[in-house]
Specification:
Elements lengths: L8 E7 L3 E7 L5 E8 L6 H18 L5 E8 L2 E3 L4 E4 L10 E2 L1 H8 L3 E5 H12 L8 E6 L3 E7 L2 E3 L30 H4 L1 H13 L6 H4 L9 H9 L3 H25 L3 E5 L8 H12 L10 E4 L6 H17 L4
Parallel strand pairs: 1-4, 4-8, 9-12, 12-13
Antiparallel strand pairs: 1-2, 2-3, 5-6, 6-7, 9-10, 10-11
Helix pairs in contact: 1-2, 3-10, 5-8, 7-8, 8-9
The structure holds zinc ion.
């Protein structure tokens, strides 16, 4: 993007299983207003869509002088981007099969609305203004409740059928392993996600392994989180170190497979379970390097995601502006 390019404002919505995050970006892609409200997905998609339009209305009234071009909505699952319809969101109650998202929001708000997979939104933000900026070929992965991913080729995000390209979390690494939300057994997501780490810690506590996690959680298994396991590992607990290192190793094996397919210049790792400098990320990068044999892995640049918690909502907003520029006249 040439310097001095003047953009219009745009609104991003990140639809998560727990929270709805909304942000209003100005023409320089800075967040000028933001909101976060519980998704309360159990009330059904109509109620969630109403909460989204309410939130958008509040953002716009908080900055009435900002000219807004469009709205982008990031959703956790498959999406028909041309129609703005979800195909399936497996982590939300009711699974949102074939739910029109763009049209009802557009009708209420009077703006073009684009819908994008949430991992692609993360990638779009990191590509435009974050860690993958300038990369021609890149692989991005975000680790949280799930393991999302995206592929950049020729400087563009590859969307593919159902916008599902780059779903590294569903590479089957352990046939016959744990059941995944996608229906298969032994996907990366069952081995390296936040719930995989917490679940393994719970199992090892129940089976009687000696670990400081028993005290750190005050004996309450529900208090075990991936953050708590990471803390115990950093404090030297051998069981926690083993859990974090094994999860990171699995991620690295998947990354090595993807590296063999794509030969990316850049690999970006982010998400709440994979913070910059963490033991988990170190384990994943070491594993990816040791499992890459077909090319010189020293030519692959491993980078930490740069936009953190806001990447998803920023990427959704960027998609909203792109969509408005392409389709605005039709709305
Ligand atoms: Zn899966």
């Amino acid at each position: 993007m040439p310097r001095g390019t003047i953009h219009r404002g745009t609104i991003g919505v990140d639809l998560g299983g727990t929270n709805l995050k909304l942000a209003l970006l100005d023409g320089d892609n800075q967040i000028v207003e933001r909101a976060i409200v519980p998704t309360q997905g159990a009330e059904g998609h109509d109620a969630v869509l109403a909460r989204i339009t309410d939130g958008i209305g509040r953002l716009r009234s908080a900055a009435p002088s900002l000219d807004v071009a469009g709205i982008g909505v990031g959703v956790p699952g498959e999406v028909d981007m041309a129609r703005g319809v979800t195909i399936e969101l497996p982590n939300l109650p009711g699974r949102w099969v074939d739910v029109a998202v763009a049209q009802p929001i557009s009708l209420v708000c009077g703006l073009p609305v684009g819908v994008i997979n949430d991992a692609k939104a993360f990638a779009l933000a990191e590509l435009r203004i974050g860690a993958a900026s300038g990369a021609g070929t890149a692989l991005l992965v975000t680790v949280g409740t799930g393991v999302g991913g995206a592929v950049i080729a020729h400087g563009q995000i590859v969307y593919g059928v159902g916008s599902a390209a780059g779903e590294i979390g569903h590479l089957i690494l352990l046939p016959g392993g744990h059941r995944c939300t996608c229906g298969n057994l032994g996907c990366l997501e069952t081995l390296a996600s936040g719930p995989a780490i917490a679940g393994e810690a719970m199992r090892m506590i129940v089976q009687g392994f000696s670990t400081s996690l028993t005290d750190l959680s005050a004996g309450d298994l529900n208090a075990i989180t991936p953050e708590l396991v990471a803390r115990a590992a950093d404090e030297g607990d051998a069981v926690a170190i083993d859990i974090v290192d094994r999860a990171g190793n699995w991620l690295g094996i998947a990354l090595a497979g993807a590296i063999a397919l794509l030969a990316p210049e850049v690999v970006v790792i982010g998400g709440g379970v994979a913070p910059a400098g963490s033991r988990y990320v170190h384990a994943a990068v070491a594993s990816a390097k040791s499992h890459t044999g077909i090319l010189d892995v020293n030519r692959v640049d491993f980078r930490d995601a740069r936009l953190g918690y806001d990447a998803g909502v920023i990427g959704a907003a960027l998609w909203g502006r792109d969509y408005a520029m392409e389709h605005g006249a039709q709305v």
